[in-house]
């Protein structure tokens, strides 16, 4: 390799896909984001939300059941849910996430800088075809049945907003930053997510009326909140 060695992997980059799923679900349980007895979404939805394969999710859930974090019930009305008294401190991979707070804050700031500029242009240049898509996604998020479904729709919403700016290079860079940030995504209570969806509605309304100042203000509020909600790292 021309005398160069690959950089050492640090933090979550040292983890396998299986370990990242284990860590994210277990950490959400320890932080109280997933409550005792709460049912998890179907495996395919979890896989889409966490960006991994369904087999990986299946193996992670089985292992977390063995660890006492989750329980599996068979038959009609069965599925995987958080244990009534979930075991704590049994998933060592969590440390890779809790030790990454500084990186998370930096990624949030990078996202904020890019997204506010792109949102400003999206409002000024309002794409009449994009606005109905944004409203449709807002309505679908309001009806989402769980955090996994909501997260997939949320990602599509923000992508649609910035894409309507028409700045291809900026949108591509934004996508890179968000994909990296989503590596730290944890399940959130659906009530919290629906509350955040109100800001999606405010943003869409601002873009629709070409109010760039209001669009940027709600974007700042929406993204800056991640400093206190992601990994509970405020």
TrEMBL record:
<dbReference type="InterPro" id="IPR008920">
    <property type="entry name" value="TF_FadR/GntR_C"/>
</dbReference>
<dbReference type="InterPro" id="IPR036390">
    <property type="entry name" value="WH_DNA-bd_sf"/>
</dbReference>
<dbReference type="Pfam" id="PF07729">
    <property type="entry name" value="FCD"/>
</dbReference>
<keyword id="KW-0805">Transcription regulation</keyword>
<feature type="domain" description="HTH gntR-type">
    <location>
        <begin position="15"/>
        <end position="85"/>
    </location>
</feature>
<dbReference type="GO" id="GO:0003700">
    <property type="term" value="F:DNA-binding transcription factor activity"/>
</dbReference>
<dbReference type="GO" id="GO:0003677">
    <property type="term" value="F:DNA binding"/>
</dbReference>
<dbReference type="Pfam" id="PF00392">
    <property type="entry name" value="GntR"/>
</dbReference>
<protein>
    <submittedName>
        <fullName>DNA-binding FadR family transcriptional regulator</fullName>
    </submittedName>
</protein>
<keyword id="KW-0804">Transcription</keyword>
<dbReference type="InterPro" id="IPR011711">
    <property type="entry name" value="GntR_C"/>
</dbReference>
<keyword id="KW-0238">DNA-binding</keyword>
<dbReference type="InterPro" id="IPR036388">
    <property type="entry name" value="WH-like_DNA-bd_sf"/>
</dbReference>
<dbReference type="InterPro" id="IPR000524">
    <property type="entry name" value="Tscrpt_reg_HTH_GntR"/>
</dbReference>
